[in-house]
User: Fold this.
Amino acid sequence: MASEGLEGELAAVLGGQGLCVHSCDSEPAGELLAPVQLRRNVCYVVLAVCLNEQDEVLLIQEAKKECHGSWYLPAGRMERGETIVEALQREVKEEAGLHCEPLTLLSVEERGPSWIRFTFLARPTGGVLKTSKEADAESLQAGWYPRTSLPTPLRAHDILRLVELAAQYRHQARHPLILPQELPCTLVCQRLVATFTSVHTVWVLVGTEGVPHLPVTACGFTPTEQRGGIRVAVLRLLQECLTLHHLSVETKGLLGLQHLGKDHTDGVCLNVLVTVAFRNPGIQNEPPKVRGENFSWWKVMEEDLQSQLLRRLQETSVIPVSR
Assistant:
């Protein structure tokens, strides 16, 4: 029964789906985990990379005083009550005059759990491109520009990497099409698919308190956790059950995410693929020993799930997370 439940959870997460967050297996010490509130203690930013058939990218000219006249991708802060996709579509419409359809999440960037930016590959579906005659507080105008010859000045050069990432994805997708799942979450947290591999065998770390499940770690807002960001919450959970000094831990990226944005549930859960390995492997056919009774290793026996995991690990078929 436990294995069947875990297989269902793992299949859902590998398929880019979300799972309800009922509780957290790891929480920051000495911190009261109150529900997060957008614009109060968290900020989510959405950004769209729209490419057309001529390999041109949609840019907007900024109207804000601090970056007036410079060019950037359509982007902005989410408002309370919005889903991530609704926020993206609103920003593109306000700044560029176009309707759009997000195709997939491309990357996630964070500066601690209180600031997270979601970048999407999107395509225009209608509307009228904003001209200089329609300049307002949102933008001065919008335009399509060759991907390899963007206008200057740019508001910031961070978009160059994102435009290239979108072009690479269109040429050869490195991960499946993934969009946010609309499921409620009150915290900023991560669900871990923490793996250990040996030859063609994969083990996954599971929480054993209650029904066996993929473990969830809450992201804290203390100065230490803010500086370390998402990685700190991963390491905290692993330190609670493993001796890490002889292990190598790597966060590979995201398998998906969930957020609702309705009914004052502003939290987000990131489904994260993590690898655990011995620093000096030698001949290690078994995963590292688990301390305590709240976690254990689960050997993935179902062939399709095992092959999916191995493929995602070998091809780094995940959404990149950066700081």
In short: The chain is about 20% helix and 30% strand. The longest strand covers residues 98-110. The mean pLDDT is 94.
